[in-house]
């Protein structure tokens, strides 16, 4: 493990339909930082090719297209399928990764090119704001994972959209491999996992959808994930504004009164799930999902910060010189 201060190296590259980045200092299990960054870059690109629904021969595409009820899959696909089940369960069905078909129907059947819609114009043309709801079919609950057999079982036709859950998962998987370095950040298109043996805090700047910085968190470890309707937006088949965050109850883009949510959590996978659930819940219920803290950007582009919970303090008691002494520490 490397606890010595050393220069931080970084690389940014196109991946997962956006920009990924790795920041790293020190020497660890994958060698010096520059070599480890290149290993991480190649791994993320390989995962992109294996888990993109836009690549016909990808593992995800083969699983979604298979007529078999039970399919042998890789360990990473097992983790993604399990994350799909857990996200649906933990969010009450709001975070539903089985909406691949609905995304296609909404106009997201191929990678998006260009900056997307103007946010102000899209919000002005959007339908009335309503909280999203779960799909009563609960397709995510029909998925079964068997780690021992290495299989995923689901009714044929239930398709998984890797989307944000995959980015959070892959950020966490890389973080496990980089944990022995002095400092690290893995950024999968806005799903960040950070840490390192030095325990040094750093600024995590949250971009405002209209430009500039919305908020700054200081973190030494953990994760931050951002979900936004300002990203991946287009004009839908009906001529109205569309984006990639669907209301599972309707299968249509959700306009809830929340434009963007950044969530803090111990892992990027949990942060991704919480940010998406908060956005889909609407302004009133969104803070309930941000149990580790976060920040909302509302329709009028104002901010609402949800502070992280105060650190739990531990009180210990000891007898010293015949007196009871209490100590209070985090």
Automatic annotation (TrEMBL):
Q: What is its EC number?
A: 2.7.1.180
- What is this protein's name? FAD:protein FMN transferase
Q: Do you know which InterPro entries this protein is assigned to?
A: ApbE (IPR024932), ApbE-like_sf (IPR003374)
Q: Which reaction does it catalyse?
A: L-threonyl-[protein] + FAD = FMN-L-threonyl-[protein] + AMP + H(+)
Q: Which organism is it from?
A: freshwater metagenome
Print the keywords alphabetically.
Answer: FAD, Flavoprotein, Magnesium, Metal-binding, Transferase
Could you tell me one molecular function GO term of this UniProt entry?
transferase activity
Cofactor names = Mg(2+)
> PANTHER family from the entry?
FAD:PROTEIN FMN TRANSFERASE, THIAMINE BIOSYNTHESIS LIPOPROTEIN APBE
- Principal EC category: transferase
One protein family per Pfam? ApbE
């Amino acid at each position: 493990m490397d606890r010595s201060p050393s220069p931080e190296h970084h690389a940014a590259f196109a991946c997962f339909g956006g920009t990924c980045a790795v920041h790293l200092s020190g020497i660890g299990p994958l060698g010096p930082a520059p070599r480890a960054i290149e290993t991480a870059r190649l791994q993320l690109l390989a995962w992109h090719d294996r888990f993109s629904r836009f690549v016909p021969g990808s593992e995800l595409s083969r699983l979604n297209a298979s007529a078999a009820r039970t399919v042998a899959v890789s360990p990473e696909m097992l983790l993604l399928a399990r994350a799909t089940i857990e996200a649906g369960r933990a969010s009450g069905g709001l975070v539903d990764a089985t909406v691949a078909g609905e995304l296609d129907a909404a106009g997201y059947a191929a990678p998006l090119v260009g900056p997307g819609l103007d946010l102000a114009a899209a919000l002005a043309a959007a339908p009335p704001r309503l909280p999203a709801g779960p799909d009563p079919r609960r397709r995510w609950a029909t998925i079964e994972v068997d780690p021992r057999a290495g299989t995923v079982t689901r009714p044929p036709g239930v398709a998984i959209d890797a989307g944000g859950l995959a980015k959070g998962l892959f950020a966490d998987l890389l973080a496990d491999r980089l944990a022995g370095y002095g400092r690290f950040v893995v950024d999968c298109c806005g799903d960040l996992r950070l840490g390192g043996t030095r325990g040094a805090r750093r600024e995590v700047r949250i971009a405002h959808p209209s430009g500039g910085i919305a908020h700054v968190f200081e973190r030494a470890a953990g994760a931050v994930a951002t979900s936004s309707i300002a990203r991946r937006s287009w004009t839908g088949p009906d001529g109205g504004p569309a984006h990639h965050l669907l209301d599972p109850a309707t299968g249509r883009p959700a306009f809830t009164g929340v434009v963007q949510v950044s969530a803090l959590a111990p892992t990027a996978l949990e942060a991704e799930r919480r940010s998406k659930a908060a956005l889909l819940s609407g302004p009133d219920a969104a803070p309930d999902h941000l149990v580790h803290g976060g920040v909302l950007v509302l329709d009028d582009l104002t901010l609402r910060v949800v502070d992280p919970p105060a650190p739990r303090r531990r009180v210990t008691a000891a007898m010293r010189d015949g007196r009871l002494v209490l100590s209070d520490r985090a």
